[in-house]
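It is worth pausing here to work through a concrete case rather than discussing structure prediction in the abstract. The textbook approach is simple: state the sequence, then state the predicted structure, then interpret. We follow exactly that order.
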Amino acid sequence: MTSGAAPRSPSRDEIELKLPCQSLDAIRQKLREQGASPISPLHFESNDLYDDGEGRLRSSESTLRLRRANDETILTYKGAARFEGGIKRREEREIRVSDGEETEAILAGLGLTRRFRYEKQREEWKLEDCVIALDRTPIGDFVEIEGDPTRIRRVVALLGLDPSEAIPYSYAKLYALRRQQDPSLPPDMVFRPAPERSP
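Step two, the predicted structure:
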């Protein structure tokens, strides 16, 4: 989920909860009131998901992602998700790479191609040893909380969020479901350019 600031369990599992958000400003204010520390200012992220021609990663519910953000490129593998009390847990392995284009070439050499791109604007805070990401995406705003399950539940309560609204899907899966409802959406989850103003 994060650019490396999140706590990690010995098994390198990503443990997180994703919730829709009506007002990121309101959550940001609650974070300040609770004494949360900003750890990553608002920034743009571009995420490319890779798979082979047969879609074996997707069919195994695994993910291979190349993320560009804050002048860094990070390659991440995520295993299949499992859920414990509504909180998602999955293996996560990631490494910073020095050259995104060369990494793309390596992936292509392995028979992997970009299958989906999603973009978001993200900022990160730390509270109760959890990393809280405030995400603005082309399909709405979301809050992701990563950390120990007990602390995640505490942060949810402190921020006045409703755990029953937790979303079990990745952004890729969530967007695929949205496209089923609205086929006019573009193939990738990207911000559309702002319309040009008339002179």
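Step three, interpretation. The mean pLDDT is 92. The chain has one domain: 13-181.
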